[in-house]
Design goal:
Elements lengths: L8 E6 L2 H11 L3 E8 L4 E8 L2 E7 L18 E5 L2 H10 L8 E2 L6 E6 L5 E6 L3
């Protein structure tokens, strides 16, 4: 039996700290837990709350771009559970963030869509089962 009990955090590296922080805080509505500047690494780190987990937002000078989207090895995308996908799609559109057409997961019957953060990281909205 596994001792894993929950997801603690997901780390994201952005190319522009202020732009990424505005997106995750102001557009997605995540609250800032703390932010620090690490001078020795020339790096900002911002911890943001999403449910019981966190997103760690980093910036580093000269970070390499993601190899391809979305089939590169590694994390494919980050998905957020929402209660009302239509309301969230409309809210994001109000911030100028386009979403793909809403689809139905053929295995669960749940509705979902994709959009991207300012650096093109694929993000998903997944409607909670009703």
């Amino acid at each position: 039996m596994s001792g894993l009990v929950a997801l603690h955090h997901v780390a994201i590296i952005g190319s522009d700290y202020d732009r990424s922080k505005r997106f995750y805080r102001d557009v997605l509505g995540l609250s800032v837990i703390r932010e620090v500047y690490r001078a020795e690494r020339q790096s900002w780190k911002c911890d943001l709350r999403v449910g019981s987990a966190q997103i760690e937002l980093f910036t580093f000078p000269d970070s390499p771009p993601r190899p391809s989207r979305p089939e590169a090895l590694g994390l494919r995308h980050l998905a957020f559970t929402v209660a009302d996908i239509d309301a969230e799609v409309a809210r994001l559109a109000g911030h100028g963030v386009p979403c793909e057409p809403v689809r139905i997961d053929e295995h669960t019957g749940q509705r979902f869509t994709f959009f991207t953060d300012p650096d093109g990281l694929p993000l998903e909205l997944y409607e909670a089962a009703s």
